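Please check what follows.
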Amino acid sequence: MSIESWSDNILIVELQDDPAFTDDVTALVDEVDSKKDVDVVLNFAGVHYLNSSNIAKLLKLRKKLTGNRRRLVLCGINTKAWGLFLVTGLDKVFEFADNVATGLASVQIEPE
């Protein structure tokens, strides 16, 4: 996993398929716990498959961030993974962007 601090309050995270996905999101949750005032942009370009455990971890991360009044933006999601978000209705729960640049712009321009 690559966690890059874009600024003092924005993290960009590049995710990979399992088993790295689970470890990466767990490490990210710990990072969010320690910083509390960060927005997160997740790059899914390296993710080709999601399972229920992955979704549960993402929901936990989202809950932590929204509880701190921060944002989580998911970017670069492939067609197969996007289908999972649509079928489960999670396309209405998470915030999405086409790519990292758009996700960063969204977080910086439109604070929630």
